[in-house]
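Morning F.,

Quick status update on the modeling queue. The single chain you submitted on Monday has been processed. Sequence for confirmation:
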Amino acid sequence: MLIGAGFYAYSVQRKRQRLIERLEFGFEQQEEQITSLWEGATNLLQLAAIRQLLLSSALIRALDIMIRRAGLRISLLQSIAVLIGITLISALLMHFLYRNNVATVSALLAAPFLTVMIWRFLAERQQRKMDLQLPSLINSMLTTMRAGGTPIQALQATSRNADDPMRKSVTQVLNQLQIGQSPIMVWKEWSDFWDTKPCRLLSTGIRVKWEAGGQMTSVLEHILESIEFRKKIQERIDTLTTQAKFGSILLSVIPPLLLYMQYRVRPELVTEMFDDPTGQKIYIAAGVLTTIGFFWLRKMAKIKME
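C-alpha cells below.
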C-alpha cells in the first residue's frame, strides 16, 4: 500500500508542479487552460486526501514533523517514496552481491533505519541551531519594544535579517498572524513544532502576556536570562560527557579496525569468512550489534536537561 501511495504521490506532485508553472507563466490556449486547471484541482484534492490518510498514523505524523523540522525540500509523500526506493535498492544490491537471504533481510531492515536516523540527525541539528538563534530573536524584540515598536515589527526585522532556520520559522509565524490566526494558537503550534525547552519557554511567556496584556519586556528579559543560564549549564554537561561519547566512538571503531589489521596480516582468513555463508552471517551479526552498541552507548552518555 505504501509503495503504491508513494509512486502515485510522486506523479501527483509532478502534476502539481506543472500546474503551478502554468499558473505563473500563462497559457497559449483558453481550452487547454480550463482543462488543465480542472485536472490540477483534482490532483491537488487527491494529494490532500492521500496525505490525510497517511497522517492518521502516529508514525507517519512523526516522520512528517521530522522532515519539515530538518528543512528537507521534499513533501511527506515524496519522503515515503524516497524511503521505499532506498530500501528496495539496498536490498537488491545485497541480494546480487551476496546471494544470501540474511543479507537481503538485513538490508531491508537497516536501510530505512539508517535513512531515518540521518533525517533525525538533521532535524536535531536544526533544533540546536534554533536554540542558538533564539537569544537574538528575544534581543531584537526587546530592542524594538524599548524603542516604541511592536512585537510584529521585531518579527519582521528578524525575518529579513536572521539566518535559517530562524528566518523561515519567523516568516511562517508572521504569515499566520497576518492572515488573522490567533497569536496564542500560532505560538503554541510554533513551540510544539520545534519541541525544545527554550522554544516552549518563549512561547509560554509570549502567550501569557499576549492574553493578559501589559508590558512584555520584563517577561522577555527573564526568559532571556533563563535561556542563557540553561546554555551555560548545558555546555558544562557536554564537557563532562565528552569522554563517554568519545569512548562510544572508540569502541565502535575497534572491531572494523581489527578486521582490517587481520586482513593485512592474513588475508586468506578474512576471504574465507566472507566466502563461507556462516562467516557472512557472523560478520553481519557483528556489524548489527556494533551499530546497536554505538547508539546505545551514545544514549547512555547523553544527559537531557528537564
